[in-house]
Each structure stands twice: as structure tokens, then as C-alpha cells.
Amino acid sequence: MAELIPLTELPAGFNYPSEYLRVVELGLTDLEPWQIIEGRMLFSIYNTLAERFPENHLVPFARYAPNDDVVCWHPETGKIVTVDPWDRHWYSNRDYENFWAWFRQAIEDLIAFDA
């Protein structure tokens, strides 16, 4: 299993969605240009987001390689947001209703990237 952030270190009440855990369990993590992040990179991005945007409690799970955008769960809104962790101002440049909506787009981006 991938090295994820322990639930004890995540925002109160947040749980990884079962569909996300299933995709990770299946090893569907390299969807070029998207990558589901884990281990050191995940912890580093999580800590960066917590330092830069502490009021948002963002939980990252994937990054877009061409520009380093990061896709995160926003526990307060229940949505998935896309942010630039290196930008000083938090804003989402793309939202998704749920994990499957993001995953579908990641597959579409994979197809387009290979074309």
C-alpha cells in the first residue's frame, strides 16, 4: 500500500474516500501528466500547503506535472480543488465534485497527452 498521511495527522473528521484508496491499491497512480502522490512528496506538499494556507486544511493527493498544480480535498466544502502550492494567494483554478470526476478528467488528460 502507498505511504499516505496518517488519519491522525489529517483534519478532524477527514477520511480518505474509498474510491481513492481503491485506485491507489490497484496501483493506478501514474496517469501522465497526472501523478497520484505518496510518501515524501505527499508529506512535503501537505506541509507546504498547511504553512501557506493554514485556514483551508487542504489534503493533497495528486499533482499535474507540466505546471506543478496540486489537486486537494477541501474538507470544509467537500470539493476537490486544484491549487498552485507555490503561489502566495490561495485560489482554486479548477474544482471537481468528487474523486471520480477528477479521475475521469485525469484519464482524458492521459489520452490527450499521449495523442
Ordered list of secondary-structure elements with their pairings:
Layout: H1 18-25, E1 30-31, E2 34-36, H2 39-52, E3 59-64, E4 69-74, E5 79-83, E6 94-96, H3 99-114
Antiparallel strand pairs: 1-2, 2-3, 3-4, 4-5, 5-6
Number of domains: 1
What is Rg? 13 Å
As a percent range, the share of strand residues is 15-25%
**What's the main sheet like?**
6 strands, antiparallel
Which bin fits the share of residues in helices?
Answer: 25-40%
Shape: globular
Unreliable spans are none
Distance between the termini: 31 Å
Helix segment tally: 3
Average pLDDT figure? 92
Give, in order, the helices and strands. Answer: HEEHEEEEH
| Number of extended strands | 6
The secondary structure category is alpha+beta
Strand order of the largest sheet: 1-2-3-4-5-6
What does this structure look like?
- This is SMI1/KNR4 family protein.
- With 115 residues, the protein is α+β, with helices and mostly antiparallel strands.
- The protein has one domain (32-114).
- 33% of the residues lie in helices and 22% in strands.
- It has 3 helices and 6 strands, in the order αββαββββα.
- It has helices at residues 18-25, 39-52, 99-114, and strands at residues 30-31, 34-36, 59-64, 69-74, 79-83, 94-96.
- A 6-stranded antiparallel sheet has the order 1-2-3-4-5-6, sandwiched between helices.
- A hairpin with a 2-residue loop joins strand 1 and strand 2 (34-36).
- The radius of gyration is 13 Å and the shape is globular.
- The model has no long low-confidence stretch (mean pLDDT 92).
